[in-house]
Amino acid sequence: AILIIAGGTGEFEAGISKDGQTREHALLAFTLGVRQLIVAVNKMDTTKWSEDRFNEIVKETSNFIKKVGYNPKAVAFVPISGWHGDNMLEESTNMPWFKGWTKEGKGGPVKGKTLLDAIDAIEPPARPSDKPLRLPLQDVY
């Protein structure tokens, strides 16, 4: 899953607050069995490409997703600007301080610089096709 977090002042704080959507979406993804997560910190242009703001968001988000059940060391954190396309497909020149992300993978450390790299680094889940069929049920009518 890709968790897109607004990096703007006040926007991140609203999303990570007690009833915020960022918290809700991270918890929902984990509850539904999504075990691989990418965190994209969007709207970096509105923060004037601030490294301090990005690091603050990474720290807060890491603390929260750890409580949910994710291992922050296995999560790629990528600063992006969807409006300008920075760090989406190609490395951004607006954030020279960002040297790339590193995460723990099954075969050792995995590195990349962009959101596309992080998507490409997702490991396909095991498909136990030799086991009986199981379906998640939400309700019975």
From TrEMBL:
<keyword id="KW-0547">Nucleotide-binding</keyword>
<dbReference type="GO" id="GO:0003746">
    <property type="term" value="F:translation elongation factor activity"/>
</dbReference>
<dbReference type="GO" id="GO:0005525">
    <property type="term" value="F:GTP binding"/>
</dbReference>
<dbReference type="InterPro" id="IPR000795">
    <property type="entry name" value="T_Tr_GTP-bd_dom"/>
</dbReference>
<protein>
    <submittedName>
        <fullName>Translation elongation factor-1 alpha</fullName>
    </submittedName>
</protein>
<keyword id="KW-0648">Protein biosynthesis</keyword>
<dbReference type="InterPro" id="IPR050100">
    <property type="entry name" value="TRAFAC_GTPase_members"/>
</dbReference>
<keyword id="KW-0342">GTP-binding</keyword>
<feature type="domain" description="Tr-type G">
    <location>
        <begin position="1"/>
        <end position="129"/>
    </location>
</feature>
<dbReference type="InterPro" id="IPR027417">
    <property type="entry name" value="P-loop_NTPase"/>
</dbReference>
<keyword id="KW-0251">Elongation factor</keyword>
<dbReference type="GO" id="GO:0003924">
    <property type="term" value="F:GTPase activity"/>
</dbReference>
<dbReference type="Pfam" id="PF00009">
    <property type="entry name" value="GTP_EFTU"/>
</dbReference>
